[in-house]
Structure formats: structure tokens, C-alpha cells
Amino acid sequence: MNWDKKDLLGIKELSKEEILLILDTAESFKDISKREVKKVPTLRGKTVITLFYEPSTRTRISFEIAAKRLSADTINISASTSSYVKGETLKDTAKNLESMKPDVIIIRHSMPGAPHMLAKTIYSSVINGGDGAHEHPTQALLDLFTMRQKKGKIDGLKIAIIGDIAHSRVARSNIFALKHFNTEIICSGPPTMMPPYLESLGVKVEYNIDRAVSNADVIMMLRIQKERGGISYIPSIKEYSTMYGLKKEHLTKAKEDVIIMHPGPMNRGIEIMDEVADGPYSVILDQVENGVAVRMAVLYLLLGREM
């Protein structure tokens, strides 16, 4: 199929065929990162701007590396070094940036819907790098890519997502993506962190972590979203870690070839213990590596189609 979208704003807006197109395209880019010269001329002459109003390590750098490996020019802007600190609105910032003729703007913002507003305002392509607790589409895409890489399939998998579900854009995007496939999704965490709409999405809710990971193919751990008030939803960090921190003994309940995922940043000793994060079932660093290939695919599909 051909890609005909100007923007990537959320997983919810993608079809199964579009998701598979991104994953298959990423597969073709994966080997570029293993070459001695890690660059192809695919997007030479294109300009990519990352506009991040929230902190980021993996997503921002991954997008920058992806763009550079496709030979695009990259410009990074953070809120602390932009005119945002002088009171400039997001819309005015975007309009001013567009006047300089970038081809794509990747935005991360604490306000849900900020990328959607931007996409309606400017002609440049817009990629959602995370908007509040709403969505994080490229994280879900790299997660699915990693599942398929490690398991050989997505259909038929049982996935346990554990942690602060209510405030997690990663959880939402993964649920939207996985529902396109024949998967069983279990969400687990404190009752205060379980949003009421989960069951309407066909997701099972299980408050006991042992039962949640039972026979799971994939366990995805999430951190407490302190910046979105998540800490106020639990009695204490110690109690949360005791009840919902993933420990080595929990893995005995899962499939023998279970994989452990985490979108990062990890809070070691809280939602995941060292022996799990650094253990043989962890694919956390594979997720980071795969993020570059997936973001190369997204940039190529949005911009390469014009070339």
C-alpha cells in the first residue's frame, strides 16, 4: 500500500495495514545502523525540527539520529531555549518556524492534542513525539517492532502492561496498536491508576501482578508519571514497589521465553528490579535500538513519498 498521510499524530488514526507498512519499512532500514558508514542519501535536502516542551533523552536523540542517517538536516529546540520562556504561544512558535521552510516538525508537549492543533495550523508534516497522557505513537510502533522481532509475530501474544496506566501515553498507544491484532492485553496496577475505559477497549484488568503476568509472552513495565501527579495516587513508593515492582520471582509465572519491556526512563528498584532490567529476558536496549529504525521509517514515509 502507499502512504498518503501528511502527519503522524497518533496510533488510533492508523489502520493495521498502515502499522504493518511502517514496521516493514523499518525492517529495511535496520541494517543501515550496523554499517561502517551509517548514512543513506534518502532525505538529502530535507529539514527536520524537534520541538520539545518536555524533557526527553531517547525520543529526541533517536529522531535526530534517524534523520541524520537519512541525510536530513536537523535542528533541536527545547522550551527552555525558545521564545516560550518569553511568553510566545505554541501556534506563533510553529508559524515562525514554518516561515523557515522545515519539512517536518516533531513535537513533544504536556498538552494533549498539541500536535493535532499544530498539524491544522501549518503545512509542514507534524509527528507526535508525545502529548501529555494522550499518545506516543512512535514508542508503540517500536514496541510492536520489537515484539515481532523477538517473537516472530504479534498475533496470538499475551501482553501484560503494568504500572501507572492512567497517566501513560505509552500504554494508550500500545493498546490502540495491539487491538489491531489478535492479542490478549492485561493491564495491572493500583486501582487508582486504572482508567475506567480499559474494559470498553477489550482490555482485561487485573490488580494482582502474579495473575497479570501468568502465561504472558510480553511484560511491559511503566514508571509512575510523577510529572502528571501519579505519585499522589499511591500511599507510598515503598508500598507500590512491594505490590507492583517486577521481581525475578514474578517471571516464573510467565512464559519461559517471556520478554521484558520498558519505554524508559526506568526507576530501578521501584517498578523494575535490577536483576530483571539487566537479566536475560530484558529487551529494553533492543527497544532503544529499534526506535531509530522505526523513526527512520516514519520520516521516510512522510517525506520520502515526495521525492
Find the structural class using helix and strand composition: alpha/beta
Spatial sequence of strands, sheet with the most strands: 7-6-5-8-9
Q: Any idea of the CATH class of the largest domain?
A: Alpha Beta
Any guess at the CATH architecture of the largest domain? Answer: 3-Layer(aba) Sandwich
Q: Would you identify the regions where 5 or more consecutive residues have pLDDT less than 50?
A: none
How big is the Rg? 19 Å
On the 0 to 100 scale, the average pLDDT is 94
Q: Identify the CATH homologous superfamily of the largest domain.
A: Aspartate/ornithine carbamoyltransferase
Terminus-to-terminus distance: 17 Å
Share of helix among residues?
Answer: 25-40%
The gross shape turns out to be globular
Can you count the helices? 10
Strand content: 5-15%
What characterizes the major β-sheet?
A: 5 strands, parallel
Q: How many domains?
A: 2
Report the order of strands and helices. Answer: HEHEHEHEHEHEEHEHEHH
CATH topology of the largest domain: Rossmann fold
Walk me through what this model shows.
The protein is an alpha/beta fold and 307 residues long. It has two domains: 137 residues, Rossmann fold (3-Layer(aba) Sandwich), CATH 3.40.50.1370; 148 residues, Aspartate/ornithine carbamoyltransferase (Rossmann fold, 3-Layer(aba) Sandwich), CATH 3.40.50. It has ten helices and nine strands. The strands form two sheets. A five-stranded parallel β-sheet has the order 7-6-5-8-9. Helix 1 packs across helix 5 and helix 3 crosses helix 4. It is globular and about 55 Å long. The two termini are 17 Å apart. The mean pLDDT is 94.
